[in-house]
Amino acid sequence: MLFRSLILYFCVQVLCLDYSKINLPNDHLPYYFYNYPKIGQQCETDSDCPYTYVHSDKCWGYEYSCTWENQYSIPSCPGDHRGWVKTKFDQQNTFYTQADFGYIKQQLRELKVLCEPLFPQDSSLECSEHMRFCRGRNIMINFTSLLTRDEPLRYKMDVLKEGEIGGFCEFHQEQLHAETDQISPLQSWGPELRYFTKLNKRPIQEGDCDITIEKPTYIMKIDATVNMYHHFCDFLNLYASIHVNSTHWEAFSTDVHVLIWESYMYYSTFEGAWKAFTEYPLWDLKTFMGKTVCFKNVVFPLLPRMIFGLYYNTPIIYGCERSGLFKAFSEHMLHRLHIPFHKRKDSKIRVTLLSRVTKYRNILNEDALIDALRENNSYSVQKVVYNKHIDFKTQIELTHNSDVFIGMHGAGLTHLLFLPDWAAVFELYNCEDENCYLDLARLRGLKYVTWEDKTKLMQEDEVAADHVENHAQFKKLLDNYSYHDEL
Ligand SMILES: *[C@@H]1O[C@H](CO)[C@@H](O)[C@H](O)[C@H]1NC(C)=O
Ligand SMILES: *[C@@H]1O[C@H](CO)[C@@H](O)[C@H](O)[C@H]1NC(C)=O
Ligand SMILES: *[C@@H]1O[C@H](CO)[C@@H](O)[C@H](O)[C@H]1NC(C)=O
Ligand SMILES: *[C@@H]1O[C@H](CO)[C@@H](O)[C@H](O)[C@H]1NC(C)=O
């Protein structure tokens, strides 16, 4: 008995990795194993490992040893850069740094140790420039004084005061203060970390904390949870931050906590999306109000409203499209949320019209439009309404199984993130904010068409359909099912 449990123990410690902590789409595994070849090699010999390790040179693009040819994605820049840069390569590289895995690389290169551990049990704090991304070990946060706050906390820059966050480490105070130059709630971690203090003893060892959080924790300042465009900006930045912090084979694990930096109870129709990141209920400031909490491992992720951040209001170089970061994010979410891709029954182009049953911005002649589309035998047309009566995952599934996605200007168009690579988005009447979904479609690498002239509506639609039909990936898909002869 003792012998058996010893073997089991040994196994847990050395051999039997919990492979469920990897849980990535198959297409991402070569990139994952590039960074953790030891895990890959162990996988080769371990019958419990669900993955086949194939040695490859493919890398995400932010690794030091990664070459331009081997990276996950190379931006496509068919258009003119309108004078931003000198060469085609500069144009691609600019896009790569602004909106692709080059953005992660930039964050990694910027990381600076602001509080330095001298011994393994010490605290540590590292941040990228302007405190856009930070991570720490053995960090103490004192939430005691929150008990005296009456007002609910959201987008507040005074959640913490001097001395309410700190660690036992060699503190480079001036360097830290030099980085606190973007003080705004969702732009940086400056509003919180400007109050970082050097403690005179190790908080965990000395018993200063009421609670010690062992598991890695992401502390998140989030945008508007009611709006898909804004909330998915939070999720994209969280995904990007996992890559920034992926120095450990368990980096993508959901065995982590998320603490929302608000005292409001979290509510969102998109709540299901968190399942891609954590297997635990979300925490908020109320969870720890009145307590001093030590985090053994904490990440302060990239924020949704950073200057030159992603993807809100960011100028992105002209002429380029198809960010690998956005594609990987989409695939990661689809995989983690178990969204199926249905086998096609025919070669028809699947057209989905997103209907809005609100007072404003309804598509007035919606039914006429649908009838007209249905007249064309090459289309399979469905009208959908995405509201609280349809489960969020079902919505994503409907979107993911569309080739052409038609919708009025509005946050629902954020669904385009989950369309297949060959898809086209047709935005009807882009009334305000002209570029917002055009840019998102560009980042995701999709064809974008908009209604410019009512009389040309059907022509615009054919532009979208033609794009799908002529897309290499779509052709391959149909070839695979041998539908090409039915066309
Ligand atoms: C936390 O802050 C309170 C005051 O708000 C203070 O009384 C307490 O000593 C602090 N705890 C630690 C461990 O510093
Ligand atoms: C961040 O990276 C560190 C390694 O540098 C790792 O120990 C920690 O678990 C990671 N944090 C999260 C939240 O994954
Ligand atoms: C039907 O749609 C296809 C694909 O867009 C297009 O090529 C064709 O001309 C359309 N047929 C009619 C009758 O409009
Ligand atoms: C083609 O079909 C095979 C077997 O059904 C499948 O594994 C493969 O992913 C398909 N390829 C494409 C491009 O759909």
* Cα separation of the termini: 67 Å
User: What small molecules does this complex bind?
Assistant: 2-acetamido-2-deoxy-beta-D-glucopyranose
Instruction: Give me the number of helical elements.
Output: 15
Shape: globular
Q: Measured on Cα atoms, how large is the radius of gyration?
A: 24 Å
Q: Average pLDDT value? A: 90
**Beta-strand residue percentage:** 15-25%
Question: What's the total number of strands?
Answer: 16
How many domains comprise the coordinates?
3
Residue runs with pLDDT of under 50 for 5 or more positions: 1-14
Q: Could you describe the largest sheet, including whether it forms a barrel?
A: 11 strands, mixed
Write up what this structure looks like.
With 487 residues, the protein is an alpha/beta fold. The chain has three domains: 18-103, no CATH class; 111-300, no CATH class; 339-486, Flavodoxin domain (Rossmann fold), CATH 3.40.50.360. It has 15 helices and 16 strands. The strands form two sheets. Strands 1, 2, 3, 4, 5, 6, 7, 8, 9, 10 and 11 form an eleven-stranded mixed sheet that branches. Strand 8, helix 8 and strand 9 form a beta-alpha-beta unit. Helix 5 (101-110) packs across helix 8 (228-244). The longest helix is centred in the middle third of the chain and has 17 residues, at 228-244. The N and C termini lie far apart (67 Å). It binds 2-acetamido-2-deoxy-beta-D-glucopyranose (4 copies). This is EGF domain-specific O-linked N-acetylglucosamine transferase. InterPro entries: Glyco_transf_61_cat (IPR049625), Glycosyltransferase_61 (IPR007657). Residues 1-16 form the signal peptide. One of its GO terms (molecular function) is protein O-acetylglucosaminyltransferase activity. It catalyses: L-threonyl-[protein] + UDP-N-acetyl-alpha-D-glucosamine = 3-O-(N-acetyl-beta-D-glucosaminyl)-L-threonyl-[protein] + UDP + H(+); L-seryl-[protein] + UDP-N-acetyl-alpha-D-glucosamine = 3-O-(N-acetyl-beta-D-glucosaminyl)-L-seryl-[protein] + UDP + H(+).
